[in-house]
Specification:
This protein is mainly alpha-helical and about 230 residues long. It is about 70% helix and about 5% strand.
Length: about 230
């Protein structure tokens, strides 16, 4: 069985075979259980994910469109490899999309939005505290809460298209984070707290500056560690 093939969740019975295969395979790519550059043999995937060859082809072609999988013509499919150039490109896209969405969200956000920002940051800060204390088990929930916090910051932007585009870019960026970026300790803690405070003050210029430092600092951290 391919490492990382996840067990079906409680709602799996309500999913179509294609939807379930897409969700599981995509999740395993994002967390690097299916490694960058790994060949995706249809027979092995069929055994691991319990779906037919036709469904797998449909799923993998969908992931090709998301640039998480490469199609190799007659040679089949492989997980998209990592590159420093793509990491920098994704960082630039995040800055462009997230910076614009922050401005819109800061303008439109109400007290309910403020409450969700505070709650999302609280969950993230709890995991950061545990990581700082050396608790390795907090890494996976920290990654999840990191994503939730950044998405919550822009959730009042008023554009579903912008949110969906940002989420797709963030997922691809986080694939690098899961592999090479990691938790940057007290630096990340301060930057996340600063983003929360900027949101509550509606300080767009300061938020953009913190976001640039946060994202580009993560890229520098990854490259300094020999990644991607």
């Amino acid at each position: 069985m391919i490492a990382g093939a996840a067990a079906p969740g409680p709602n799996a019975a309500a999913e179509s075979a294609a939807t379930r295969a897409y969700r599981l395979i995509r999740g395993d790519i994002l967390r690097n259980a299916l490694a960058p550059g790994q060949k995706l043999r249809l027979e092995a995937l069929r055994d691991s994910y319990g779906v037919g060859i036709g469904t797998l082809r449909e799923t993998l072609n969908r992931l090709v469109a998301e640039r998480l999988v490469l199609a190799e013509g007659q040679r089949g499919f492989e997980v998209a490899p990592f590159s420093a150039a793509e990491l920098r490109e994704l960082a630039s896209l995040r800055l462009l999309l997230e910076g614009h969405a922050l401005e819109q969200a800061f303008r439109a956000g109400d007290v309910e939005w403020e409450a969700t920002v505070i709650a999302a940051h609280h969950k993230l800060a709890q995991m950061e505290e545990r990581l700082g204390a050396g608790e390795a088990a907090a890494l996976d929930p920290w990654r999840r809460f990191d994503s939730q916090f950044h998405q919550t910051l822009i959730s009042a932007c008023g554009s579903r298209t912008l949110m969906a585009t940002h989420a797709a870019v963030f997922d691809r960026y986080q694939r690098y984070q899961n592999r090479a970026l990691g938790f940057r300790g007290e630096i990340a803690v301060r930057e996340h707290a600063a983003l929360r405070d900027c949101a509550l003050r509606r300080d767009t210029d300061a938020a953009r500056a913190v976001l640039a430092t946060h994202i580009l600092g993560g890229v520098d951290h990854a490259l300094a560690r020999g990644g991607p």
